[in-house]
Amino acid sequence: MVSVFAESRAHRAWGRVHRFVHHVARPTSPAAARTVLARRGQLAVLPYGLGRSYGDSCLNPGGLLVETRGLDRLLAFDPASGVLRCEAGVTLAELLGTVVGRPAPDGGVWFLPVSPGTRFVTVGGAIANDVHGKNHERAGSFGHHVRAFGLLRSDGRILRCAPQENAELFAATIGGLGLTGLILEAELQLVSVPSLRLETEDIRFADLEGFYRLAAESKDWAYTVAWVDCLARGRALGRGVFSRARHLAGSREAVRPPGPPRLSIPLDPPCSPLNSLSLRLFNALLFHRLGPGGRRSAIRPYPAVFYPLDSIGAWNRLYGPRGFWQYQCVVPPDGAPRTIARLLETISGSGEGSFLAVLKTMGDVPAPGLLSFPMAGTTLALDFPNRGAATLQLLARLDRIVLEAGGRLYPAKDGRMPADVFRAGHPNWQRFTEWVDPGFSSAFWRRVAGAEAAARIARAA
Ligand SMILES: Cc1cc2nc3c(=O)[nH]c(=O)nc-3n(C[C@H](O)[C@H](O)[C@H](O)COP(=O)(O)OP(=O)(O)OC[C@H]3O[C@@H](n4cnc5c(N)ncnc54)[C@H](O)[C@@H]3O)c2cc1C
Hints:
The chain folds into three domains: 6-67; 74-193, Uridine Diphospho-n-acetylenolpyruvylglucosamine Reductase, domain 3 (2-Layer Sandwich); 197-424, Alpha-Beta Plaits, CATH 3.30.70. 26% of the residues lie in helices and 24% in strands. The chain has helices at residues 30-38, 92-98, 123-128, 136-139, 167-173, 208-217, 276-288, 302-306, 336-350, 389-404, 419-425, 429-433, 443-460; strands spanning 6-8, 22-25, 45-48, 64-67, 74-78, 83-87, 109-111, 146-152, 158-161, 182-189, 191-193, 197-205, 223-228, 240-247, 263-264, 295-301, 312-313, 324-331, 357-362, 377-385, 408-409. Strands 16-12-14-13-19-20-18-21 form an eight-stranded antiparallel sheet, with helices on both faces. Strands 5-6-10-8-9 form a five-stranded antiparallel sheet. A four-stranded mixed sheet has the order 1-2-4-3, with helices on one face. The structure holds flavin-adenine dinucleotide. Residues 14, 46-53, 57-58, 68, 88, 116-118, 121-122, 124-126, 128-129, 131-133, 177-178, 182-183, 309, 412 line the site of flavin-adenine dinucleotide.
């Protein structure tokens, strides 16, 4: 196919398993984005933020990726209400460096209402994956704080979407994986917090029961998350370290926004230093780092609490040239301890350890998006080095446990979930297809929606 757009192999997702050829456009204004869509010809379009999704939901092999980083203007900020308007390519890092920390009328300071574990994501990407943070139980997901956005469709129309305006398209776009159109700009509601420093506690727990006890006892803590040792077995199954944090009241001390990472992995190591020996060592160090008491309290500035992984640039290269698979599921509260135990038993029995194993509880706030991932229950996120068939077989076994429990997988973290797993976990998926823009597609979508949905969308075009 002859295309007016340059071809590139440079665009990858964070897990670095897939490498595809794309046509690429980089508009720097809403008008330029409209021109790009008008000139797309037969190419299927997909917006691309910073590629911090792990699998293939931000990839579109053979199609047109529209990079949004050029849409980077902060359009308005009202310090009285905390309402912010910006273009969709603005990053959370840029918001931290501009509006976050400005005084709010109640004596607090403005802060991001929800933040994922990295600040290097765009506002458009955060909406399209309806990202969640460590405060889901109290604050819901990113989409709960979106007041409105402007959505460019492939027919050139720009639709304003809000809870009361094009409401169903609004709900389809939040968590809609970039498939309903290109978000040009968004209006967000920031939250006022007492300060940018946090009171934190890290507490060791001996097993899964300990995790659930700490989660139940931490209702006055805004942010909670736990690391689990996924190599532990038997009575130690599910042991780990529980971390909780809340904004410190009465602190006037300024906190500087975080700068670029001080350390970066410049090249792909020929083979990964992350192997079963280093994993065993890493897990033992993490588990015992709190000393004999198993508990540590500290006051920390927000970057240390929210973005520890961002301190090393391109850390994903440590997995070597074959990359890694991330796996994140959520399972409903009924039976969650048993299901999480089955998942951990399956992982520790497989010998395919995960370096980052994160466990947290999610609240029962209704999801704002048709395909939003968060739901009430417990979520477990894991990173597995890509060892080919052995890793894929393990992930398929985990899929069955999640499905039996009535859970779902997170598309933002996925690069291989089969169609049946997607459909069972996202019961609104067919309703969602009504809103997919006929000019848009992705590798993920072609895999999970199948020919039948693609044909229906094409007929609507
Ligand atoms: C270290 C790390 C920690 C993370 N922690 C968390 C976490 O705690 N919680 C969580 O929920 N996620 C987490 N993530 C995942 C990450 O937050 C999401 O994948 C996020 O959406 C990535 O944003 P991005 O700008 O890089 O978008 P991309 O990955 O480039 O794209 C993501 C999706 O958004 C769509 N999109 C992008 N821009 C637009 C636009 N303007 N209009 C319409 N669609 C658009 C794309 O088509 C794609 O479907 C983490 C990722 C990393 C690397």
